[in-house]
Amino acid sequence: MRSLEVEGGAGIQGEISVSGNKNAALPMIAACLLTSEPMILHNVPDILDVRTMLDIARSLGAEADFQDHTLRICCPAIKTATISRELCSRNRTSILFAAPLLVRAGRAVLSPPGGDVIGRRRLDGHFYGLEKLGGSMKFDGCYRFSSKGRLAGCEMFLDEASVTATEQILIAAATASGHTTLYNAAGEPHVCDLANMLNAMGAKISGHGSNVIEIDGVESLHGVEYTVQGDHIEAGSFLALAAVCGGGLVLHGTGPCRNYWMIRRTFEKLGILMDLQPDRIEIRPGQEMVIRNDFGGHLPTIADGPWPQFPSDMMSCTIVAATQAAGSVLFFEKMFESRIYFVDRLISMGAQAVVCDPHRVLITGKANLHAVEMSSPDIRAGMAMVIAALAARGTSRIHQADVIYRGYENLVDKLTAIGAKVREIN
Predict the structure, then answer these.
(1) Whole-model pTM over 0.85
(2) Quick check: 421 pLDDT over 60?
């Protein structure tokens, strides 16, 4: 894998265009296989996870052309309902091909998916949802799904508001007979974007964005031209970078303001202020980062949770930002028990951090970070390490940079465009 060499202390200033939402584009690619008609998706990020999903789609019979962030994809016929173990192992969203394969071929064979190791990531919601709709699943080292005829709508309740399980059910129920009501559904922006694309294809989905989604199944879906929304997690990562480095930054293509209110509110606790405008966010330079205690002088807590709570994918970068704010704050990672393990790397850089347990870490700032050599454990922690290295004294090396590239497009080019001193090395 490639590595990044990062020189700390550079000034950050400028403008960046945010890429399309990774977590919307990936399920959309799977959903494209619901129709035999051509699909055109714009603003698709050119990242490794997208390339993997396209490799899987092609292996199943799709024809795909991906250039300049525009994807043209068409799957006239399903050539095989089996996805190889190697392809499944490349990312987690490979599991989302189960629904379109059941709809188009009546069967699907998938190996356990790969992805970031940030804790236990259950697939029970996927199995439950597909079985409630009339499918069946057996496991013999592979997940073997099958259905007898058309799937049928029903009422169901997810044990946890899983994003990918909600997406799986939306894809499967869109053409199921009858009505489906999904309770405790995930409401993240990328779930809404998928639902909007399916509706543009002829589906009848309502309630997306809330925890109850209603789906009236239709006979078939048609091709459509659709534009993926901007990635609010990428935007939040660059906002954290600008705050840590004391720079000013304008982000374009960010999408609706409502996607950022929880990020804005959380950053306010660290003394970071931002200006939200339609399709643009600005963070002004020279802000003094001071952690704001709760009423009565109590220690503040930053916790994640299902939408519209603070996204788990923003925890790593926000923890790094807190190391550069005066005061103390407790981070409570509720969703993944391994998400904060990367804090050990921050401690080696000089961060004042106490890891209380697998879910909680106490950060006290402002810390004087210094350069180290480290590796990227997952996408979001890898980006957090880049931010920490840019705030540190000296030159750091971050190995396994390809892990970061799974979620951040043209990262080196975007960073150097705003003044960061970053280069890729082999």
Answers:
(1) yes
(2) yes
Domain with CATH 3.65.10.10 in the chain: 3-19+230-425, 22-227
Degrees to nearest 5, angle at CA 201 with 196 and 205: 45
| Topology of domain 3-19+230-425, CATH | UDP-n-acetylglucosamine1-carboxyvinyl-transferase; Chain (3.65.10)
Sheet with 143-147, edge to edge strand ranges? 107-110, 143-147, 135-139
Residues acting as catalytic residues: 116
Under CATH, which architecture does the 22-227 domain have?
A: Alpha-beta prism (3.65)
What does the pLDDT look like over 55-73, one tens digit per residue?
Answer: 999 999 999 999 999 999 9
